[in-house]
Amino acid sequence: MFASRLALAQEYAHILATDGVLKGLIGPREVPRIWDRHIMNSAVVLPRVPQQASVADIGTGAGLPGLVWAIARPDLSVTLIEPLLRRTTFLEDAVRDLGLDNVSVVRSRAEDVNETYDVVTARAVAALDKLGRWCLPLVKPGGVLLALKGRTAQDEVTAATATLHRLGATSIVVSTYDNGDVPTTVVEVTK
Question: 91, 116, 158, 163: least buried by Cβ within 10 Å?
Answer without folding.
Answer: 158
